[in-house]
């Protein structure tokens, strides 16, 4: 409330954060198991001698049996011991602090490894150390689905990745994978050979082999010897 005006965003749990530990507001957070207030305050139960976080899954104690503390050290100094279920003495941000998120993460890693396909939900719960029913409640609260639904979604995702990878990668021979898109057929080529508009170069001359027939060579006139006698000349053939 500011200057007599009540803000619309005011929550009944704001006194826990703004004006100290209001018992009514703290007990409302414990009753609703509101995880937003884990680490803000701690609930100590007189009848059991333990202290818990506001989101502890144990049964909510009666309002007259609880006290509230700002820190775990304050509750321990008052003589209370830490709860074994919600681990209020764990370090914020560590795996022990958010147990359900750690369990959900381990379950998802085992589901990805195929534990549900090989051993079923019982095998998955046995590996984590929970009963199948309690494991299902944790996964539904953290992830919104049970182990079987998560395993089916994981298988579908793996199959989709394999199909997309196979459609983009070429085959081992180096030929790209056939495309699934439809293409327009190519126009039919004409079967007639187009007539060339340019004149073809002249063909080289072809030489014929001439038959060798005997040819008579006319003999030269006889030459005169120095002594005045003529030398006969024989007829030559080729």
Descriptive keywords:
238 residues; DNA Methylphosphotriester Repair Domain; four-stranded mixed beta sheet; 7% strand; elongated; disordered N terminus
Describe what this molecule looks like in 3D.
This protein is 35% helix and 7% strand. Helix 4 (99-112) packs antiparallel against helix 5 (115-128), helix 4 (99-112) crosses helix 6 (132-143) and helix 4 (99-112) crosses helix 7 (147-168). By secondary structure, it is α+β, with helices and mostly antiparallel strands. Among the domains are: 14-82, DNA Methylphosphotriester Repair Domain; 99-168. It has helices spanning 14-18, 23-32, 72-77, 99-112, 115-128, 132-143, 147-168, and strands at residues 42-45, 50-52, 66-69, 81-82, 216-217, 236-237.
């Amino acid at each position: 409330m500011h200057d007599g005006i009540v803000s619309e965003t005011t929550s009944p749990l704001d006194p826990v954060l703004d004006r100290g530990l209001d018992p009514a507001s703290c007990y409302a957070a414990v009753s609703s198991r509101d995880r937003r207030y884990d680490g803000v305050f701690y609930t100590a139960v007189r009848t059991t001698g333990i202290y818990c976080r506001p989101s502890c899954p144990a049964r909510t104690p009666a309002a007259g049996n609880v006290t509230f503390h700002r820190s775990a050290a304050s509750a321990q100094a008052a003589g209370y011991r830490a709860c074994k279920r919600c681990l209020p003495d764990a370090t914020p941000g560590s795996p022990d602090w958010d147990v359900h998120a750690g369990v959900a993460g381990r379950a998802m890693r085992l589901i990805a490894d195929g534990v549900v396909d090989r051993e079923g939900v019982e095998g998955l719960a046995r590996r984590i150390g929970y009963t199948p029913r309690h494991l299902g409640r944790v996964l539904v609260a953290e992830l919104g689905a049970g182990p079987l639904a998560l395993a089916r979604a994981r298988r579908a995702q793996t199959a989709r990745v394999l199909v997309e990878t196979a459609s983009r990668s070429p085959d081992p021979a180096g030929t790209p994978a056939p495309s699934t898109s439809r293409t327009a057929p190519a126009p039919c080529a004409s079967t007639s050979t187009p007539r060339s508009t340019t004149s073809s170069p002249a063909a080289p001359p072809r030489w014929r082999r001439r038959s060798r027939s005997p040819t008579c060579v006319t003999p030269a006139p006889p030459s005169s010897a120095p002594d005045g006698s003529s030398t006969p000349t024989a007829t030559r053939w080729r």
